[in-house]
Design a protein that fits this description.
Helix content of chain B: 40-55%
Strand content of chain A: 5-15%
Number of helices of chain B: 9
Strand order of the largest sheet of chain A: 4-5-6-7-8-9
Shape of chain B: globular
Largest interface: A-B, 35 and 34 residues
Number of strands of chain A: 9
Oligomer: heterodimer
Number of helices of chain A: 9
Structural class of chain A: alpha/beta
Shape of chain A: globular
Radius of gyration of chain B: 17 Å
Chain lengths: ~260, ~260
């Protein structure tokens, strides 16, 4: 549909209490990705969002992804837990993690407090990029049992400005938030999964710096076809489409962006 | 073929655009065509609590757009049922006699409000349908905004009137179950991000003939919203019902 290989920077595998993902295992996720032309997906463990300690489900995720070139596992770190330093060391050592992800609203900490700031300095010193989940669900459609505001854009911006050597991919930003974030500091990147207006991606591109918008589906929460069609249907140059589809993600991961 | 049952012309502040007729009609059709969509149903420029003059302006804009692109644009009469009953009834008669396909209700009054009864009856008499906004919002609920349970109550009171409940994702599983036992109520897929699983769930619970593709353009984008239906695991015949057959039936198009 796109005519370019796709790198999905926003994917997950596992169970979620308010959705039925039971039919999705690593095999069927790979098949789903392949059917959509997705060459690689950055996959986190869904359970690590709500379970009190991410290591248990992340260990399983990394084991599951071993030998599957289409699935690049993401390590979730909760910096308010007493074992986060060991958890991070284990992730980047034996597990071989190349991507670290934070859920500040689900794990209940401000990004500007010392735990997250120390983690940012540590990840930057390792030369790794950081993923920050701004939201998992549309706030209006959340279960009444778990209503969480998105991570404040201003907080993400200050966090990014305070850690200029750290490459940060913000996942789940809506259209206006993408435009705001990407114009604030050059070490911020965003994915397209939640970014939507009637005019598609076209009006967004002139408003943001080149090279900082990445393809993301938010599968299995969203139908992956939606993001694929969003990018396929955008009236943008072939070069811009290629950048969003995979070039920007490769550069972000490799540390050669910007 | 694809028909989008839930779209709006653009608006600015609390007014339709200055000249929404020809230019907006042509632009919407061209944009839709680029995404493979053959026809659109316009629900009116969307703004809150319009007075009688505002209602006429909204519906005049819809009528002018439908006349500009016959066959490609269809339309519904937007109403504020809180306005005097005579004015509401006259506007329904004016718009449906002029060729609009039914009525759009937002959140000026709740779906349980008895002021909707004559509207429902008038639409049934014209053989049209009523499209009603609905949402189980967990934040930002608007006063008088209807939930799917409210819409179900309206449909139960008027079994002869075809009622299309908006926003499948916003109603969620509970919303689907609310309307399940009322065969005169359908649901459209418009709005919200493309949350997975709900399209299949709605088809399973309601049947493919009661689920209709809609986008909520220009609040949402055609491509993303189509991806929701195209990405759902459905048999080809069910997908056909969602993408155009059900809308064609509602709009009384030839060969529907």
């Amino acid at each position: 549909m796109i005519g370019e290989p796709l790198i999905d920077t926003h994917a997950a595998l596992g169970h979620w209490p308010w959705a039925d993902f039971s039919a999705l295992d690593a095999d069927s996720l790979e098949q789903r990705l392949e059917a959509e032309g997705i060459e690689q997906a950055w996959v986190c463990a869904t359970e690590s969002i709500l379970y009190p300690e991410p290591d248990r489900f992340d260990e399983r995720l990394f084991a599951t992804c071993q030998g599957r070139s289409r699935l690049l596992p993401v390590k979730t770190i909760n910096p308010v837990l007493g074992n986060w330093r060991e958890s991070l060391a284990h992730a980047v050592g034996p597990l071989g993690a190349r991507l670290i992800k934070l859920y500040p609203n689900y794990h209940r900490y401000p990004l500007l407090d010392e735990p997250a700031m120390e983690l940012a300095r540590t990840v930057a010193a390792l030369g790794l990029p950081l993923l920050i989940s701004l939201r998992v669900e549309d706030e209006r459609n959340q279960s009444p049992l778990l209503q969480l505001a998105a991570v404040p854009v201003a907080e993400v911006a200050t966090f990014a400005v305070s850690n200029p050597r750290l490459r940060i991919l913000v996942l789940g930003a809506q259209y206006g938030e993408v435009a705001t974030l990407l114009n604030l500091t050059p070490n911020l990147y965003c994915d397209i999964a939640f970014a939507e207006t009637g005019d598609g991606l076209e009006p967004l591109l002139p408003r943001i710096p080149e090279g900082r918008l990445l393809f993301g589906t938010h599968t299995p929460f969203f139908y992956p076809r939606a993001a694929v069609r969003k990018l396929a249907g955008a009236q943008i140059s072939a070069a811009a489409r290629r950048q969003i589809a995979h070039t920007n993600a490769r550069a972000f991961l490799a540390g050669t962006a910007g | 073929m694809i028909i989008d049952i839930h779209t709006h012309p653009r608006w600015q502040g609390n007014r339709p655009l200055q000249h929404p007729g020809e230019a907006e009609a042509d632009a919407m059709v061209a944009t839709a065509e680029r995404h493979g969509i053959h026809a659109l149903c316009l629900l009116g420029c969307f703004y809150s609590y319009p007075d009688e003059e505002g209602i006429r302006a909204i519906n005049d804009a819809t009528l002018s757009m439908v006349r500009r692109q016959p066959g490609r644009l269809h339309g519904l009469c937007f109403l504020n049922p809180a306005l005097p009953a005579r004015a509401v009834a006259d506007e329904v008669e004016r718009c449906l006699s002029a060729g609009l396909s039914g009525v759009k209700l937002e959140y000026e009054v709740n779906a349980r409000d008895r002021r909707l009864d004559p509207i429902m009856e008038a639409v049934a008499a014209h053989g049209g349908f009523v499209l009603h906004h609905a949402w189980y919002k967990t934040c930002g609920h608007v006063a008088q905004e209807s939930t799917p349970a409210d819409v179900a109550a309206l449909g139960a009171r008027h079994p002869r009137t075809t009622l299309l409940m908006a926003h499948l994702t916003a109603g969620g599983i509970r919303g689907v179950l609310d309307i399940r036992r009322y065969p005169n109520i359908l649901v459209d897929t418009s709005g919200s991000p493309p949350v997975s699983g709900l399209v299949e769930y709605a088809v399973d619970q309601l049947g493919a003939e009661r689920v209709v593709y809609g986008s909520d353009y220009p609040i949402r984008d055609f491509a993303t919203q189509l991806g929701r239906v195209e990405g759902a695991h459905l048999p080809p015949t069910a997908r056909e019902h969602l993408l155009w057959r059900n809308a064609a039936r509602l709009l009384k198009l030839p060969n529907s």
